From TrEMBL:
GO terms for molecular function: heme binding; metal ion binding; peroxidase activity. It is found in: Secreted. One of its GO terms (biological process) is response to oxidative stress. Pfam families: An_peroxidase. Residues 1-25 form the signal peptide. This is Uncharacterized protein. Heme b binds at H375.
């Protein structure tokens, strides 16, 4: 068996570093080792005859084995902008020297609730975006055992000393007249800076704990240990817990209230490849569907290939699940998001050609700003089995999926999405991850996204417009509401500025996010040797198999995995309409499993 070793040390000089080894406040079970050392500098031995992906993303590119590997430093499209150019202090002042507004004040003033809904998009579109995000990116936070919001800071407004000395705390100050957090105990939001590496210029660079590839690592895990912990080692299947005759995700016995609330007898916290599986009912629902889909594939393959081992069944099912997720993402989801720009960037099915010179490693601006556009899509409430539930009451509560996977799925298929714009539901800005029966313990996702951008040194909105060849904005072009909080239009944070853009290319985001998203998803496709359309590799599907995958839609996966759903709209990302009417599940295209063989 041919194998070779590649040392990318010479490519990693810029990012050789020391790293803070804090435990993330989101890494609730501490099961996964942090990537304290930039993986681009390690020796990697690859087997070019391997049919299957590695779990950590290595060896996808045989010339550059660490492209897209878990733990990779985020790419910079533009140099970061830290305070005074010191390479570590988050952006605190604007071009006039005035202090930047509190992200919470920006959120309340510019990004308040609106009554907008998307014309035909449903909540499943929103949910797929989050599901995909957890496959692509995971930014760990630096941990702090105490509180970043000490009483003297709340009353005086003085900067936390960590902000200028490089420590983990970067709290968000809340105005005393805030519409929701209006007492002294809630006038500061906890916020820890992202874990980071320091490059040779002493500049903070953040990294991605996940693999960059669309490889279902959120389902299977991005380490060998995590993957093994999820397997049954019986006929290729994943572990399940059966509740009332239905299979659900296995239990994470080490989960804490940071990511999961057990509110009733029989509740338990789910375990998947990604630790955020319990964050939202729709997310848990999609994880459950693809767990069942994997096991269903194994059940269908076993009678046909009786000589296949558990390992082959597992890997072949995993391989097909990844292909299905890629197909749905590009030919159903991204078409909705980018509209005509999807064709411009080559994201539609057909004419695939792998390019080993492409580095698909996620960019910092994609992960920290552009792909967070979906937070504005979340609606104020869900209607589950006829009961209206506010968004703030569903976070980190597995009971909804355990009680009725069908009810949750139908809620997302029928409920309308908000538009992708500058208005956000109050459940996202006032009550996100609020503790049960403890009002005002939630946080504001918009404020956190803005603060995260400043933490990462993401340059202001106008710098990005100029970089991509668009005219620089003025308060007249983006709205005077921004001028109520920012001293200069050149201070407007990227996240908030791009959120206010008019939809472009008949998609759902504006021109700037279209450019950032389009370029990243193009690289993720054409830089992936294992991409399901690639016919020129040892790992390739046959042309006939690719044709089978291309005909499959999310609606069919839902039909195959959610008991009780017998009719569904063909486009699972749009509400039911005369153009998208309900169809019997039996009429939807499925893959002919007999055509899938080794």
């Amino acid at each position: 068996m041919l194998a070779f070793s590649v040392n990318r040390m010479f490519l990693s000089l810029l990012f050789l570093c020391v790293c803070w080894r804090h435990v993330s406040c989101y890494d609730e079970d501490h099961e996964e080792e942090r990537h304290g050392v930039d993986p681009s500098g390690r020796n990697v031995t690859c087997d070019p005859t391997s049919r299957y992906r590695s779990f950590d993303g290595s060896c996808n590119n045989l010339r550059h084995p660490t492209f897209g590997v878990a733990g990779s430093t985020f790419r910079r499209i533009l140099p970061p902008k830290y305070e005074n150019g010191d390479g570590r202090t988050p952006r605190l002042t604007g071009v006039t020297g005035a202090k930047l507004p509190s992200p919470r004040l920006v959120s309340v003033t510019v990004h308040g609730p609106g009554n907008d809904t998307a014309d035909d998009a449903n909540m499943m579109l929103t949910q797929w975006g989050q599901f995909l995000a957890h496959d692509l990116t995971r930014t760990l936070q630096a941990s702090f055992n105490g509180s970043c919001c000490s009483s003297d800071l709340v009353t005086s407004g003085v900067l936390h000393p960590d902000v200028v000395n490089g420590g983990p705390c970067f709290p968000i100050i809340v105005d005393r007249m805030d519409r929701h957090f209006d007492d002294v105990s809630t006038r500061c939001m906890e916020f820890q800076r992202s874990d980071h590496r320091t490059d040779l210029t002493n500049t903070r660079q953040q990294y991605n704990e996940a693999t960059s590839w669309i490889d279902a690592s959120h389902i299977y895990g991005h380490t060998e240990d995590r993957a093994r912990s999820l397997r049954s080692f019986n006929n290729g299947k994943l572990k399940v817990i059966t509740v009332n005759g239905e299979d659900f995700l296995p239990e994470n016995v080490e989960a804490t209230e940071k990511t999961c609330f057990k509110l009733q007898a029989g509740d338990y916290c789910f375990k998947a490849g990604d630790v955020r599986v319990n964050f939202y009912p729709g997310l848990s629902a999609l994880h459950t569907m693809f767990l069942r889909y994997h096991n269903k594939i194994c059940d269908r393959l076993k009678p046909i290939h009786g000589d296949w081992s558990d390992e082959i069944l597992y890997q072949e099912a995993r391989r097909l699940v990844i292909a299905v997720i890629q197909r749905i993402t590009y030919d159903e989801f991204m078409v909705q998001i980018l509209g005509q720009a999807a064709s411009k960037y080559g994201l539609l099915f057909g004419n695939y050609s792998y390019n080993s010179s492409i580095d698909p490693t996620l960019s910092n601006v994609f992960s920290t700003a552009a792909y967070r556009f979906g937070h504005s899509l979340v609606s104020d409430s869900l209607t589950i089995n006829g009961q209206v539930v506010e968004t703030g009451d569903v976070f980190t509560r597995p009971k909804f999926v355990l009680n009725s996977l069908k009810g949750v799925t139908e809620a997302f298929l029928r409920g309308r999405s908000h538009g992708a714009d500058r208005w956000f539901a109050k459940g996202m800005t006032d009550r996100m991850f609020e503790k049960p029966n403890k009002p005002k313990t939630g946080f504001d996702i918009v404020a956190r996204n803005i603060q995260r951008g400043r933490d990462h040194g993401i340059r202001p909105y106008n710098d990005w417009l100029e970089h991509f060849g668009f005219p620089r904005a003025t308060f007249e072009t983006i709205g005077q509401v921004y001028g109520r909080v920012y001293s200069s239009v050149d201070d407007v944070d990227l996240y908030g500025g791009a959120a206010g853009e008019t939809r472009a290319y008949q998609g759902r985001v504006g021109q700037l996010y279209s450019a950032i998203l389009g370029a990243q998803f193009r690289d993720l496709k054409f830089g992936d040797r294992f991409w399901f359309e690639n016919l020129d590799d040892v790992s390739s599907f046959t042309a006939d198999q690719v044709s089978q995958i291309a005909g499959l839609k999310l609606s069919r996966v839902i039909c195959d995995t959610v008991a009780g759903i017998t009719k569904i709209q063909l486009n699972a990302f749009q509400t039911v309409s005369p153009e998208n009417s309900l169809a019997d599940c039996s009429t939807l295209a499925d893959v002919d499993i007999e055509r899938f063989w080794v």
